[in-house]
Amino acid sequence: MTMLLIGIGLFACMVGLFWLKNETRKPWLAKLAYSEPIARLTLVALVLILIGALSMLVELFD
Fold it and tell me: With a threshold of 0.90, does the pTM exceed it?
């Protein structure tokens, strides 16, 4: 459950970053949003969500 919540929180931060980039139209924010570390953090968030969801399903059927 913890990994799922951490993944959801991290993914929400990434979505918020892209929303903020569109609202403020600042070039440095666009560079940050499209940078490689942010892309890697997004992948980490999605993997955490997937692992958390799978572990919850395993606990549900055990």
Answer: no
